[in-house]
Amino acid sequence: PHMNRLTAFLGTTPTEATARELRRQKVPRRRVAEGLDLAVYRWNGWEPPQGSEADELRKRREFAAAEATPAAMETLDRLCREYEAAYWSPAPRAAAPAPIHP
User: Fold this and answer.
1) pTM for this prediction
2) Helix (H, G, I), strand (E, B) or coil at 100
3) Which of 27, 55, 60, 66 is close enough to 51 for a disulfide, judged by CB 3.0 to 4.6 Å?
4) How far apart are CA 18 and CA 10, in angstroms?
């Protein structure tokens, strides 16, 4: 469904090249916070995910909070809450949702 919406928005159709690139980019990924393990990312401080999806998002929030203003963090937290409420939550389905963003 997501690919159909995306291609409709772009006014195109998926091809074998699309499928090839999705495989190359490892899409879909097991975790949203998971990225490609590339040397350039490691050089800039990227590390492979260690904990749960929620743990990874908390770690990324802490990274942002180290340099961002309180107002910027309020905006980030609000946007994350809205996104998680509307589209996706990192909390496991069987467990009670753990607050990621205060």
Assistant:
1) 0.58
2) coil
3) 55
4) 13
Question: What's the one-letter identity of residue 93?
Answer: R
- Helix or strand or coil: residue 97? coil
pLDDT for the residue 20: 94
- Torsions phi, psi for 59 (to 5 deg): -60, -40
Q: Which two tokens stand for residue 12?
A: 């195109």
> 49-62 b/e with 16+ CB inside 10 Å = b?
eeeebbebbbeebe
**Which single residue is written with the structure tokens 């090839």?**
20
Q: What is the number of residues in the chain? A: 102
Give the percent of the chain with pLDDT over 90: 32
